[in-house]
User: Fold this.
Amino acid sequence: MSTFNQIRAILSQKTIGIAGAGGLGSNCAVSLLRSGVGKLIIADFDVVSDANLNRQFYFHDQIGERKVDALRDNLLRICPFASLQMHNVKVTPQNISLLFSTCDVVVEAFDLADQKQMLIEFMLENHPDIPVVAASGLAGWGGTDLLRIQKSGLLYICGDETEEVSEENPPLAPKVNIVSNLQADTVLGILLGEKQ
Amino acid sequence: MKIMLNNREEHFDAQTLTVAQIMEIKSFTFRMLVVRLNDTLIKKEDYSSASVKEGDDLKIIHLVSGG
Assistant:
């Protein structure tokens, strides 16, 4: 067992990369920051839109702002001394190493499955020693007892691996928040050691 | 042969099968997959050449959109 001060002392030395600042990335960043993670490196090229506000950690008056700027503002309101490195770029195989090679753990927080696959495969091939915490399957509501964490080596997949987002099965705040926090909790488990 | 497929024990009549054959037998139809054989990444172009044998640990992970 550890006190919160002991936990923070460990986490304050750690750097976490987050690829994507949408429903998964923005909420995961909040939980990691609140837990005391020392530094966050976050990359996204998108702009806050009205449609994002049903699940992402942004506010109505931030519509039109770059997500990395809006998220930096929101995270600094929680912790004014946070060490944040925000990158307004699309994550590609050409810049993944530049962005994330110094991270202790990388969180995959993209929307599209092919982007998820790109990041996971690049990290497994080029940075096999850095744990990757990805997400797959979080659309709609209900079935939260089917959410799980699949582990394969240093790759962790959070979600139900089934519920794909579509017009008729949109992502909604509760499950997106649950999965983004499954990811954050998995990161803590990696950094602090598995559950006492 | 007996292997672990996604953490569950599975029996197949053949002594060895390719990843592609196992996907067909087990009806994995999702478009985006991450496949790891004994914790080694198997890329799509290698599904039909990577062979799985007795005692192997195979993980076929579905990637679906949403985030």
Notes: Chain B touches chain A at residues 6-7, 31-34, 36, 39, 41, 43, 59, 61-67 (CB under 8 Å). The beta strands of chain B are 2-5, 8-11, 16-18, 33-37, 40-42, 51-53, 57-62.
